[in-house]
Amino acid sequence: MAVDVRSLVKDYPGGVRGIDGLSFKVGYGEIYGLIGPNGSGKTTVLRILSTLLKPTSGRASVYGFDVVRNSSSVREIISYLPEEAGAYRGMKGREYLKFILGFRFEGRELKLALEEAESLSGLGEDLERNVKSYSKGMKRLLSLAATLAVKPKLAILDEPTAGLDVERSLEIRRAISKYNEDSGVTILLSSHNMLEVEYLCHRVGILYKGKLIAEGSPNELERRYNAKNLEEVFLSAVRGA
User: Fold this and answer.
1) Which string of DSSP letters, residue by residue, matches 104-144?
2) Is the pLDDT of residue 85 over 70?
3) Which domains does the chain have, with CATH numbers?
């Protein structure tokens, strides 16, 4: 398994339980989507797998590396795009990509990774402009390109199209899908956009109050809940829980 989460618990101060005995697995090369209402624990899961948070109990591993005991090894094989990822406003787009990729590559490898990131971004001549002049959608494309072009084994994407218009959202979905097909990278993402999840994900896990209440491919879930689409599945699963 690319990701193996077992009986994961995360408690916060004040007795708030963000994750409650969560278990799920993600296979090699799979796009797995986590969906759920606000406060269901999606971002907490992603941050634990990114080694930014430590679980209270339970275990989680990425390609066999424990996220707590082997955190440095995990960080070497993942990339993480948070919901509010920023970019250095004073840099040009191309400079920003080179700066981020320079943490992983050098020499010819850096040159090739930069070319791939430029292509992934789809920003063309806009890469010569300062990031401070970019729209939110352009910044998101830039950040996504940097996240994928570091060639992770696992890319963790938190709300990759949050707040974007239809055109930019479609561009990002296409970039994610193509990169998964071309490179075989495993992708774990969270989203409130059910259309996006249905379009991108091979399997989906529905979280509610820190627990997994349903899991399967979009088609399997629609049959199980006698639903026309993933939005109806989501509503039925949460109401049932």
Assistant:
1) T--HHHHHHHHHHHHHHHT-GGGGGSBGGG--HHHHHHHHH
2) no
3) 3-240 (3.40.50.300)
